[in-house]
Design brief:
It is built from nine helices and ten strands. The protein is of the alpha/beta class and about 270 residues long.
């Protein structure tokens, strides 16, 4: 039976922050097949790791990585391959290096998700330790502004065709934020406008479910009303669990299926 929906943001154990041997191409594809979900892989492509001998996207390692994916696709033809490319605001040298890699290998990928996790060229907003360090030097509104400025630059660069977790700066940082409700509403409005600009440049917008599936109550990124509004305006949208382990993928599966169903009910334009 063909899968009923797609989860287009799944990390394998080739990503630096995945430590689960079961999170292989074949293992995750099989879990997806059992649950009616076609898996779209998106391992982290961070050019700062290109100097590490074992990094899967180095030229000498890439053939083995692609062969491993092809073996999984021979068994599970519904799977697709992307990358989650890190964009570095303020580091044109790194972004040029990433662009050169894509010039060579874009044809081997189904999609490129573009992320800009880092602010002030130092701290990743999705890592609590980094956020606490950043808050020793900047206020949360300053961090938020830097993050959104970085996303604006990413969108304008046209390096990626998908925008994942557009408001990731809020994920897991509830206790660290010092935003008033009006300030948060203004930030959410800016995220919506940023997503509209991305959609206008042909990017697909992700409904990221990691905050839903991990049980923290954080909700999706961006919130469902934002994605619903974009879908009703004709933007292409997609669902991503952002799974970093096999059991995390399994926990996310019911939420992925429910989100796919909601998007179908809207008549949304979704990625294949």
């Amino acid at each position: 039976m063909p899968p009923e929906c797609r989860d287009l943001h799944v990390h394998t154990n080739h990503s630096k922050d995945v430590h689960d041997p079961a999170a292989s191409f074949e293992g995750l594809a099989a879990l997806g097949r059992e649950r009616g979900i076609a898996v779209g892989f998106a391992d982290h492509l961070e050019v700062t790791y290109m100097d590490r001998p074992a990094f899967c996207f180095r030229e000498e390692n890439l053939p083995a990585y692609l062969e491993e994916f092809d073996r999984a696709r021979s068994l599970f033809p519904e799977v697709t391959l992307g990358v989650e490319l890190e964009y570095y605001p303020g580091r044109p040298d790194l972004n040029e290096r990433a662009a050169r890699w894509l010039e060579l290998h874009r044809g081997e990928l189904d999609r490129v998700l573009g992320s800009a996790h880092f602010v002030f060229d130092r701290w990743a907003v999705t890592w609590e330790k980094d956020m606490r360090l950043a808050l020793e030097h900047h206020t949360f509104p300053e961090i938020l502004e830097a993050y959104l400025d970085g996303l604006d630059a990413l969108v304008a660069s046209d390096v990626a065709d998908c925008l994942p977790h557009a408001d990731a700066v809020f994920r897991g940082n509830d206790t660290l934020m010092d935003l008033s409700p009006p300030d948060r509403a203004r930030a959410d409005a800016r995220v919506l406008e940023l997503c509209r600009r991305a959609a206008g440049r042909g990017m697909a917008i992700e409904l990221n479910l990691i905050g839903v599936a991990d049980g923290t109550g954080a909700g999706s990124s961006p919130p469902w009303p934002t994605v619903e509004a974009l879908a009703r305006e004709g933007a292409r949208v997609f669902v991503g669990s952002d799974s970093h382990a096999a059991d995390q993928f399994v926990r996310a599966a019911p939420h992925v299926r429910a989100a796919c169903g909601r998007l179908r009910a809207l008549g949304a334009r979704t990625l294949e």
